User: Fold this.
Amino acid sequence: MPPQQPQYRLPSRDIPLETDMYTQDEAITPNYITPVPKITGDYIRDYEDDDEIQLKNYKQKKQKEKNTKRQKRTKEAKSPSFVVFFLCLCAKRKFKI
Assistant:
């Protein structure tokens, strides 16, 4: 007679008491095919839209910086020291000092 192997028992905590969740699960049928998820958005178009928005924001930022620099130069040109400098420069050219 072959020596008897020790038999191990599965602890009762590992055996589910309610098996309803397995009998009602569609995924355990032999020919089950997972449903195709619905496409809620278009990744490529969303990426292009985001890219266009970033480009638009960048252009607006550059335009604001350009306008700010232009306003600053205009403001400096109206200052009295610039007017005096410009008049002196004109006088030098006219009289060739």
